[in-house]
Amino acid sequence: MTTTAPVQLSLGVSLKDDATFANYFQNTEANAQALAALLQASANQGERNLAIWGARGCGLTHLLQAVCHRAYLSGLSVQYLPLRDLVGYAAEDVCEGLEAVQLLCLDGLDEICGNRQWEQALFHLFNRINLAEHRLIVASHTSLPSLPILLPDLKSRLLSCVIYHIESLNDSGKEQALILRAKGRGLEMSQEVAHFILTRTVRDTNELFNLLNRLDDASLQHQRKLTIPFVKEVLGHNEGEHK
Distance (Å, rounded) from C-alpha 40 to C-alpha 42? Predict the structure, then answer.
């Protein structure tokens, strides 16, 4: 179980300590290209304005936070903003001064669509960031051309970003992602255990990784390895039960 302290950013937003590039599993060429661009951005290189989009569970939040971790360790000033959690706040107050950070990551762009206050604030923030020659990365669960944004000028600015589609993992990829995440926590998970988890539980990646947290805690508490019998015990499955 990791004990690394999370990076604490301004606005009371913290990064998950396991949201790193090292434990993000990608198995497609398109995702590899997106990761290369994000790695460049975290080193203050490459295109200044990037956008990533994909289905829920594809890892957008993980990637944005991984960028912030890497950039922070490189000495850049960074800010990660989960718009879903902030949409109820005054947009101008939240966005004030954010152009001063060298790299800004906005997560959940689709959450503010139709909110005129937020759309105006982000439009002006986008312009201020460009004037400062700093970097912006946005993420959305809807493709940028399909976002129901009311403000045409904001839509135009967003479409000027270099856009990458993050492809979701298939079942085999999810198994490999579980094994990789477990390894990052110091846990050894076999292919058989990963397959058992995937076939006996939900296939949503967020839920799978939440389950890994439970298994990590239980393994530490009971000093047990991740075997199929132990996983069954933690899950509360009876022998032969199948979902």
Answer: 5
